[in-house]
TrEMBL record, chain A:
Family assignment from sequence similarity: Belongs to the binding-protein-dependent transport system permease family. HisMQ subfamily.
Gene3D superfamilies according to UniProt: MetI-like
Entry-linked InterPro entries: AA_ABC_transptr_permease_3TM, ArtM/GltK/GlnP/TcyL/YhdX-like, MetI-like, MetI-like_sf
Taxonomic lineage from the root: Bacteria, Bacillati, Actinomycetota, Actinomycetes, Kitasatosporales
Gene Ontology CC annotations of this record: ATP-binding cassette (ABC) transporter complex
Annotated ABC transmembrane type-1 domain residues: 70-265
Protein name from the UniProt record: ABC transporter permease
Native species: Streptomyces dioscori
Regions that span the bilayer: 26-43, 74-94, 115-134, 146-166, 187-205, 247-265
Pfam families: BPD_transp_1
GO MF annotation list: transmembrane transporter activity
TrEMBL record, chain B:
Catalytic activity: a polar amino acid(out) + ATP + H2O = a polar amino acid(in) + ADP + phosphate + H(+)
A Gene Ontology term for the protein's cellular component: plasma membrane
GO terms, molecular function: ATP binding; ATP hydrolysis activity; ATPase-coupled polar amino acid-transporter activity
Protein family (similarity comment): Belongs to the ABC transporter superfamily.
Keyword hit for Disulfide bond: no
InterPro entries: AAA+_ATPase (IPR003593), ABC_ATPase_HisP-typ (IPR030679), ABC_transporter-like_ATP-bd (IPR003439), ABC_transporter-like_CS (IPR017871), MetN_ABC_transporter-like (IPR050086), P-loop_NTPase (IPR027417)
Boundaries of every ABC transporter domain copy: 16-250
Name of the protein in question: ABC-type polar-amino-acid transporter
Length: 277, 269
């Protein structure tokens, strides 16, 4: 600062900027500590420990919770994701179609399935589909039903993501492909969609995390012992033993998958951000 | 309109023929009746101010834009016929874009081989051979395994030319191929285009590179306001333009600082 500057500007009154920052930070820490102390004193820790931290009960859950419940959760999620992805690509292409009715149909589909709770769709698949098509079994039994229900929900979200991804591919790519003699469909498959997928991999992975959690809704389809996934497994044992430890363990199993997946998503997003620079 | 109707190039039958071409975008009529021929082996440079419709004209030739009215023939096939197999016609017309439009998710070689395999049905070995040959022609054999993103603009544009050539086109269209390049990279691209011209390729080039037009073109077409104002040999159109609009455009282009000074006395008759 030059001398003229200090003369023109009057000296600030009160706190300097760094002093204000210190005060603000101090207040935030104080609130944080106060909240912890309040929680520590008010919660009934003994009761919590009895309900949620029975080590012998937790030990009883292994290895079934991994070899059966976690395995089923992953299976349900993956089958739902694969079906949802296929349907999502179709709906996205319909949404971009030059044929009006396709666009409307895709739009209506997306609005309905994004607007409904996933739970209702599970119930719908469990109840309405057998009623509507009597005698026909959804192939794959429970796995097929879950793939259908999860896929129907996921497709609505993924269709919008994929559509945005396709539209994010520069127009010149389609023009270059067409000028080389590609048909529109072939250019889509060979040139546009591969590029669109690179753009949408992070949001699609995020959708995988959401599906992983939504697979808990299998609870409402009625499953055999062999078909139980994490939530059902945990809840059954919890009601059998009148203790909530199994719920906690099941929850930890979800985090075992979702936290690394979330980490992967952030890495992919950072990479995608770099690539577009 | 000019009195020089198609200089005829180096041979008789025109490779590109445009008749009474009109193109509108909504209420905006960009092309207002274009008649033009490009002979086999001829190099035609289309010049004109921005917004004159020259790029639109080029894009109508391979139907990237659909003409509102009029006809376009390429190698005797009517491109504007609704029943024409446009994909088959486009295989014979190479196009090079201002923004290169290489496929960024593919290596340089795959950029050249994928279209050959998918569109022409060539097998992998054959496509790779053609790709290598064309990369050599544009002087980029050593970039075969690189991705477009790691190349300079000039290199990308040369790969784009090689990609078009790998399809074995009869005609090449260039839409301002050097306009997106840093000045020091323009020369390499123009050298490749000059080589093509020398080999007898039929070329239609929309460009602002007057020295290229002067030296390489067989004929220069000046467009303004959606019509062909004047056309003829480069020495005539660029060297001694007969139309006021052409003179005005060229003086601005060649020396932007001088343009207004020169304009002033002429404007008052």
């Amino acid at each position: 600062m030059t001398e003229t500057d200090t003369k023109v500007r009057p000296r600030r009154r009160g706190l300097t900027r760094s002093q204000k920052r210190t005060v603000s930070r101090g207040v935030q820490y104080a609130v944080f500590v106060a909240a912890l102390v309040a929680l520590g004193f008010t919660a009934d820790w003994g009761q919590l420990r009895n309900q949620f931290a029975q080590v012998d009960l937790a030990e009883r859950m292994f290895p079934d919770i991994i070899t059966l419940a976690l395995k089923n959760t992953v299976l349900y999620t993956v089958s739902g994701f694969v079906f949802g992805l296929a349907l999502g690509v179709v709906v996205a292409l319909m949404r971009l179609s030059s044929v009006g009715p396709y666009r409307w149909l895709a739009g209506i589909y997306i609005e309905i399935f994004r607007g409904l709770p996933a739970l209702l769709i599970f119930i719908f698949v469990g109840v309405a589909v057998p009623l509507a098509f009597p005698g026909t079994e959804i192939p794959g039994g429970t796995y097929g039903k879950v793939a259908l229900a999860l896929g129907l929900v996921a497709a609505a979200y993924m269709a919008e993501t994929i559509r945005a991804g396709i539209q994010a591919v520069p127009k010149g790519q389609m023009e270059a492909a067409r000028s080389l003699g590609f048909s529109h469909a072939r250019a889509m498959v060979s040139i546009i969609i591969p590029q669109a997928f690179r753009i949408v991999i992070p949001p699609l992975t995020n959708e995988l995390v959401l599906l992983f959690k939504d697979s808990s809704l299998v609870l409402f389809l009625g499953v055999t012992l062999e078909e139980r996934e994490l939530s059902k497994f945990g809840r059954d044992l919890a009601s059998e033993t009148a203790n909530s430890t199994p719920i906690l363990v099941a929850g930890l199993c979800y985090l075992l998958v979702t936290i690394p997946l979330g980490f992967v998503v952030r890495r992919l997003e950072a990479k995608a951000g770099e690539a577009t620079k | 309109m000019s009195t020089e109707n198609s200089a005829g190039g180096r041979s008789g039958t025109p490779e590109i023929q445009v008749r009474g071409l009109h193109k509108s975008f909504g209420d905006n009529e960009v092309l207002r009746g274009i008649d033009l021929e490009v002979g086999a082996g001829e190099v035609v440079c289309v010049i004109g101010p921005s917004g004159s419709g020259k790029s639109t004209l080029l894009r109508c030739v391979n139907l990237l834009e659909e003409p509102t009215q009029g006809q376009v023939f390429v190698s005797g096939t009517e491109v504007t016929d609704p029943d024409v197999d446009i994909d088959a016609v486009r295989r014979r017309i190479g196009m090079v874009f201002q923004q290169f439009n290489l496929f960024p998710h593919l290596t340089v070689t795959d950029n050249l081989t994928l279209p050959q395999r998918r569109v022409l049905g060539r097998d992998k070995a054959q496509a790779a051979e053609v790709a290598a040959e064309n990369l050599r022609r544009v002087g980029l054999s050593e970039k075969a395994t690189a991705y477009p993103g790691s190349l300079s603009g000039g290199q990308q544009q040369r790969v784009a030319i090689a990609r078009a050539l790998a399809m074995g086109p009869r005609v090449m269209l260039f839409d301002e191929p050097t306009s997106a390049l840093d000045p020091e990279l323009v020369g390499d691209v123009l050298a490749v285009m000059r080589m093509l011209a020398d080999e007898g390729m039929t070329m239609m080039v929309v460009t602002h590179e007057m020295s290229f037009a002067r030296e390489v073109a067989d004929r220069v077409v000046f467009m303004d306001g959606g019509v062909v104002v004047e056309q003829g040999a480069p020495a005539q159109v660029i060297g001694a333009p007969t139309h006021e609009r052409t003179r005005h455009f060229l003086s601005r282009l060649l020396d932007p600082a001088m343009a207004d000074v020169e304009d002033a006395p002429r404007k008052s008759p």
